[in-house]
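Bumping with the actual sequence this time:
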Amino acid sequence: MTSTELYLTADLRALTNEQPLPEALRRASLLMRVLSFLALGRPDLDDHWKSLQSEEAFETVRTRLCSILTSTITTASVLLATSGVFVTTGSPVAYFDYTSTAPHCLLFISLMLATIAMLTSASSMIRWLHTDRHWTQEDNAK
């Protein structure tokens, strides 16, 4: 038996032995469920954990998460463009003056939050596009 055969045999055994979700991750608080739903699209970590067990499941989860991130980036981009237009132009009607201090402040806050959403979603998208299942397993084990 060569070292390559030994490595392949060990790797196949690792793939067929599906590890159960750790007990600490099963009992999630309401906050954890909400955060999990916002980040992964599911209220629990079962699908994410199962995705770390096989390549096909990992690709399915990665595709779903990239789709969620794409929608977030698109929405934030539209909000960013809309906020930019409102901040840089004057009000077309006299009774709705959004160039005063309070609406201007709210528009700038909207502009900042849209920028933050775009940057964090884009960085997360880059991470998911350039990661593989084994790296994610090592990252989750830490």
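The tokens above came from a reply further down the thread. DSSP finds seven helices and no strands in the chain.
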